[in-house]
Every structure is written in C-alpha cells, then in structure tokens.
Design brief:
Helix 2 packs across helix 3 and helix 3 packs across helix 4. The protein has 110 residues and is an alpha+beta fold. The protein has five helices and three strands, in the order H-H-E-H-H-E-E-H. The chain has a three-stranded antiparallel beta sheet.
Length: 110
C-alpha cells in the first residue's frame, strides 16, 4: 500500500491505536488470542477485578474490536479481527528490536 493514505483512513487508524493504547486492553487482547473467554475468566487471567476488565472490554467492543455474546449472566468475548493479534505481535517485535538497539548503543557509550 504505497502512496498517500486517505485522511479518513488515517483518522480511523489513529482511533484504533488510541483504543488499544492501554496496558489492560492489550492484556485482554492477548488473553483472547486463543479464542472466546468469559469476563470473569479474562479478569482472572490478567489479574484485574471484574469491573475493571468489563470497563475495558466495553471500550474495545464499542470500537468494534471485540465480539460478544451472552449466556445467562455471563458475557463471552472474542476478537473481531484475528489479524489484530498479528499486528500486536509485530509491534511487540519492533519494540524488542528497538530496546535491543538502545542497549547496544548504551554499551558502546560506556
């Protein structure tokens, strides 16, 4: 995808990035990488309270990043677009490369 990107697409991209730009939301997405899970299970998996997990799940859901279904009192969530996990993994790889490069520079400066 070369060339100029439409400003509407850039705004949508920024909105998705802003939505994901919270450690709890990233942890929830990571916990959902293997499939659907209930709110209580997700909260336990990331070490958060159920209300906190629910709040962040709602933000992700309202932006269309998660799907949800109800079964009795329990709400189950899944990732709407599995490629999001690949995108998160790729960004994390870039982060690790950046950190390694900084460490190398720091060692050379000593």
């Amino acid at each position: 995808m070369a060339g100029r990107i439409d400003s509407t697409i850039l705004e949508l991209h920024a909105r998705v990035c802003k939505t994901m730009a919270h450690p709890v939301r990233l942890a929830l997405l990571n916990a959902l990488r293997d499939g659907e899970r209930g709110v209580n299970d997700l909260a336990e998996a990331i070490g958060a309270t159920q209300p906190l997990a629910s709040q962040h799940l709602a933000v992700l859901r309202n932006q269309g990043l998660l799907c949800h279904r109800r079964n009795g009192n329990e709400v189950y969530y899944s990732i709407a677009y599995p490629k999001m996990i690949q995108a998160c993994d790729l960004l994390r790889e870039v982060l690790f490369e950046h950190l390694r490069a900084q460490e190398d520079l720091s060692r050379r400066a000593e």
